[in-house]
């Protein structure tokens, strides 16, 4: 390409590209509201039935617990004889009653004994997981949807149990959707040909 043509194309195509971006106006008054996501698992359990999309149908805890006499909470999940059998529990040295009220298993309690509804799980978790709660309040742990700047709109914060199973809270992590590709086999070269081009 001739230098004169390159200069013309650069002048036409790059015009204004070197200008600094304008900053957005500073946040105004926070008019949006923040809500905390309430996952269905706080008030329901999965059933063996599936919906039209193949997802497990959920059944409200009240469906069974309102029809039965409440039994005292066991110390360990292995003691469950009728419902919730097979529950995996790996949460330190805690017992079921460390978080659940012994006489009302559908509600929680703080270390002081003060009862908490099941939907207040973030308050419960904050007692032992202070650094994570500090980061959660600052927006650095847990994630959210919506607007960071509440002057621009609402936002919904994730709950602890949106990502963590309270009975087995260690984050399981994830795996890539597609396995990594071997670069030596890309573009039609087999391994021997690729080695010959190194």
Automatic annotation (TrEMBL):
Region (Disordered): 17-37, 167-198
Classification via SUPFAM superfamilies: Multiheme cytochromes (SSF48695)
Gene3D superfamilies: Cytochrome C3
Protein name: Doubled CXXCH motif domain-containing protein
InterPro entries for this protein: Multihaem_cyt_sf
